[in-house]
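Lecture 7 notes: from sequence to structure.
We start with the chain below.
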Amino acid sequence: MQHLGFVPKGKSAGPEFVLDPKYEIEVLSQIFSDIDAGEVNTRTHNRASEIEEYFNTLPDALSSTKQKRGRGRPYASTLVDDGKARPRQTPKAARSGAARTRRVAPPRRTLAPGRHPFAEPDTEKGKQLLREASRLRLRDTPLSCAYLFRAFIEYTIDTEMRRSRLPREENGSALELQARFERVFSHLNAVGRVQRGDLTPIRATLTARSGPVSFGALNGYIHSRIQLPSADDLRNAWDHAVPLFTAVYGAHS
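Predicted structure tokens for the same chain:
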């Protein structure tokens, strides 16, 4: 009601809206697109704070705070571009016996999904990294997604090393990120915090010699003048890393 400008007018009259009709349609189109993409559903957005956060992350052009409120009008009175009232359509009756096909949800558009099977990190920085991973859109900000993925991987590795008191040096020199990952990988398997093979996909992803989301590639996205990541590679890399995040932060309760 707050962000779409709905005003309740009683059971029989139905709701009215107080914002510009074009704005209403644009916002509703965005919501339906996100529902269709699998980014928004009753599991990811079932609290007032989650709904508020969703509207706050919409583009500035879709911000309700920048819209002028006017007199309440029912949707039925909205005029279309030709100046004529749009007739109300009567839904067609479903054909009996018609086969229903289930649509396959398209790949998510953000680096991380809105909900995670693992618990949040216990620091504000870790929480913020995770929140931003669920907001950044792969198509719009692939470099930012790559930087953030590397940052959260390193944060996770260092969190486990600190908690388990794993040495961060060898022969008097600080370990590089890949060496720290290998130490965490061996430790989690040795103490039984993961099932055999759980971390194999993320290890293969991060240590592949010419992999698109390897440690070398992630560094290259920062320093290279021309190297760019792809949305699919980053999305898959995050999904491969979920068992590592779960092992370090624990399962979501």
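Points to note: The longest helix spans residues 142-163. The two ends are 31 Å apart (CA to CA).
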